[in-house]
Amino acid sequence: MNVPALINNLCVTVIAGHVLEAKALEHHERRTAGRFCRKTLSVHAVQRKPGAEFLARLKVNYARANLTNCSPGTVAELRLVGRCDEANELSEAILKAIATSYPELVSECARQLQKQKLFQNL
User: Fold this and answer.
1) What does the alpha-carbon distance between residue 16 and residue 67 come to, in Å, rounded to a whole number?
2) Strand pairing partners for 43?
3) Neighbours of 114 (CB within 10 A)
4) Which residue in 104, 108, 70 sits closest to 89, CA to CA?
5) Side-chain half-sphere of 30: how many Cα atoms within 13 Å?
6) pTM
7) For position 72, what pLDDT does the model report?
8) d(CA 97, CA 70)
9) Residue 98 buriedness (CB in 10 A; 0-12 / 13-18 / 19+)
10) How far is Cα 32 from Cα 26, in angstroms, rounded to an integer?
11) Is the pLDDT of residue 44 over 70?
12) C-alpha of 118 from chain center
């Protein structure tokens, strides 16, 4: 897998903000509804009016998994085969591309990038 080529050819599909929000919520609900939450020790309930920060996280996660031309499993696959530096580089490029394509998500992309870098240094 040629990571520099993936990064150079990385693109993010831009969709309208309200469509992104609806798709991100639907994606999250589909993945979590009815699952047990360790944090609250209860079953996840569908929450249709999440806070702004939580909604931004859902949008970035949805964009990362569904609106880039990079397969969602590529970063994880690189980590599994011991190419962590390349995985981190690709993940950073994806978040930067999302931030460029969706300026309203810059702060959430920065937060996720900062969190990722904290885990790299453990």
Assistant:
1) 12
2) 36
3) 9
4) 70
5) 8
6) 0.83
7) 82
8) 11
9) buried
10) 10
11) no
12) 16
Q: Which residues neighbour 20 within 8 Å (Cβ) at sequence distance 6 or greater?
A: 59, 62, 63, 102
Closest CA to 62 of 112, 17, 21, 2: 21
pLDDT above 70 as % of the chain: 84
In this structure, what token pair is assigned to residue 61? Answer: 């996660």
3-state secondary structure the chain: CCHHHHHHCCCECCCCHHHHHHHHHHHHHHHHCCCEECCCCEECCCCCCCCHHHHHHHHHHHHHHHCECCCCCHHHHHHHCCCHHHHHHHHHHHHHHHHHHCHHHHHHHHHHHHHHHHHHCC
Lookup result for tokens 């309200």: 18
